[in-house]
Amino acid sequence: MLKTSIFKLQVNCPNCNTYHALSGLHEQETCQECGKVIQLHDLFLKKLFASAETIKYLNGFLSGTIQQIGGGAVNQAGAYKMTYSSRAAYCEECFKTADEKDIMDAVKNNKPFKCSGCGHVMPVKAADDFVKKFHPKAIAVLNDSEGIDLMEKDKDADLKKSVVVFSCMTCGAGLQLSSDTGRMAKCPYCNNDNYLPDAIWTKLHPGKDVDPFFVILDLDGSDMKSSLDYFLSFPMMKVYEKHFVNFIKEYFENPFFNDSFGAWLKYFLSAKNPDQTRFGFDVDGVKNYFYEQFSFGMENHNPVLRERVAAYASGMPVDLQMKLAKDPIDEVRLALSKNEFIDKAVVKLLQNDPNPAVSTEARKHKTGLFKGLFG
User: Fold this and answer.
1) In terms of C-beta density within 10 A (0-12 exposed, 13-18 middle, 19 or more buried), how is residue 81 classed?
2) Secondary structure of 208-265 in the HEC alphabet?
């Protein structure tokens, strides 16, 4: 099952103290401002999600903003600003949700991803050793600057467009500089080095916007369950409760449904509060927020989403159960009739459902005296 982790990430350059927008999941990048190399190894492999384990975080459905101030070694990125999301991959141009088949086609055939909506092309980078260290089940990074891109320009033409003429500060000879020129440019006539002024360097290396890059994972249901269990098991994970709420809010603003989200939703909706809820993660509180968002315009939600909620929801408000019990889609009502957590009033309603399959399942529920006797 494919799952996407979306990053918008800036790091503070340890050399010039300015923020540099990262263009992918790389061990190092060159600062847009000063031209020096920023080492990113420790940032990605040790620091990115602070106290949370990176793999457990990426395997769940969370969204949030994390900012770290200071803490970098020599040439190592320490401070960073990151916006993270678990929504489905999308076209950065028109924001249309990317089709998983198109993503896999690009990965398998070593070609860029092309948006089916607007035709915008984004590079695709197959997971290398460093990406695998970041997450062992990563298969590719979409919109990574090191990826395969059909829109690559002819190098000679590109070079001509980006050439800047600069006079050697020692002998006055004209130097042709390009985006490949380092911060120190050697004069071929007098052999002296010229430190390029900020204005020239910026023209050759214009600052970039913080573009998203998408880490594509191939997970299974056990990955989703272990991720949720991880956050429920440790009191210190309560700090990430808001990231679950953030994702739910984001989800209903930009809804999607795929296999990985469906698998995670099953475990999330049936999860129970741990013993240390007073100090730790309150999953019931987060589920209540989900039900609240789900109830708005419920009839317009994807039928598969309604069916999944009907099948696995625990602690769902009775009025919401009643709405699902009257859903026009038979599969939704059938899923609800099999849910062991539904209210007895809802059971009675389903027992009189016009669909025989639904009414038969509902009659299997034990209610009243029999429920007390037989559990």
Assistant:
1) middle
2) CCCCCEEEEEECCHHHHHHHHHHHHHCHHHHHHHHHHHHHHHHHHHCCCCCHHHHHHH
- Domain-by-domain residue ranges, the chain? 2-149+208-216, 155-204, 241-374
CA distance 152 to 317: 54
pLDDT digits (tens, 9 = 90+) for 289-337: 999 999 999 999 999 999 999 999 999 999 999 999 999 999 999 999 9
Tell me the C-alpha distance between 334 and 337, whole Å: 5
pLDDT in tens, 348-359: 999 999 999 999
**Location of structure tokens 């103290």:** 17
Model pTM above 0.85: no
